[in-house]
Amino acid sequence: MKTKIVALTVLTALCMSLCSCGKVEKSTQTALLLDTIVSVTCYGEGSDEAANAAIDEIKRIEAIFSPYIETSEIYNINHNAHSAPVKSSAEVMSVLKEALRICALTDGAFDITIKPLVDLWNIKAENPSVPSPDAIAEAKSKVDWTKVELSDGTVRLGAEGMMLDLGGAAKGYAADCAVKVIRDHGIKDAILDLGGNVYAMGSSEKGTPWRIGLQDPGGQRGEYFKAEELSDLSCVTSGSYERYFESGGRIYHHIINPKTGYCADEGLISVSVIGKSSFEADMLSTAIFVMGAEKFEKIKDNFDIVKYITVDKTNNWKEY
Ligand code: ADP
Ligand code: MG
After folding, report:
1. How confident is the model at residue 165 (pLDDT cuts 50, 70, 90)?
2. Which of 105, 137, 196, 218 is 20 to 30 A from 15, comparing alpha carbons?
């Protein structure tokens, strides 16, 4: 079986070429965090401290929300919140509350209890394979966001084996938090890329909005089918062409339809969402991938997004 896992970054900021004056202070910091390549570039006085502080903030968020770090709050919830409620920080409570709002509004297309299915499919393994229907049914029975109980600063998971996975939300949340940290440092212009979660703050070196390229799913990395001009906005892409394997002539990717237990298959290969909140845009890019654009159109007024762009299997894009 051929396994192919293509690199993580969907979007790359089409950073404008440096202006010849070169006087604006600028600092770029990169790190491997949240299972992806994170890059932060800040402009102006104090840009170095701001970019470093932003990276530290993303590290802080990974340490709380990663289900793989044994000291994280999410790990603790996943291992101890079935028999009794687990005391949680105000930050975890508020992130889970907002994530559950998206689960409810998308009728479970986005589901933060997806982990049993993510673990079963184990797409990141050396040689992933298609699980048996019985195994899928068994894992699917543990996925149900309605059984997550938040009350009085505690979290309880209402079914045996249920586990949280914020893989479709954490990068967006981290981007928003990093943006706050950068603003607190007095920086207005910056560009952040957390493996496809881009946040464009202020303006580019030319003084114009940032131009962000949307990766052509069928093209080489860095080939764009469209560019978006963004200022103080985030653009988040979910694609099936990033992490997948092939088996029996079919492609199996990392976005799962909680209702079937199999990979989402609404005819889309890429969904980009643009909005003020990278957290919301991140969850919605995953949700739209699962539910399809037609269904999402009916509920989109519930969200604070500017627009979204889909690419279908024939590589045609559409803007909504
Ligand atoms: P990426 O992480 O590549 O940017 P997404 O933002 O779409 O892509 O998130 C996909 C991740 O979200 C998966 O790796 C998994 O951890 C989680 N996930 C997969 N399917 C769902 C789903 N239906 N609802 C919520 N999270 C999901
Ligand atoms: Mg997402």
Report:
1. very high
2. 218
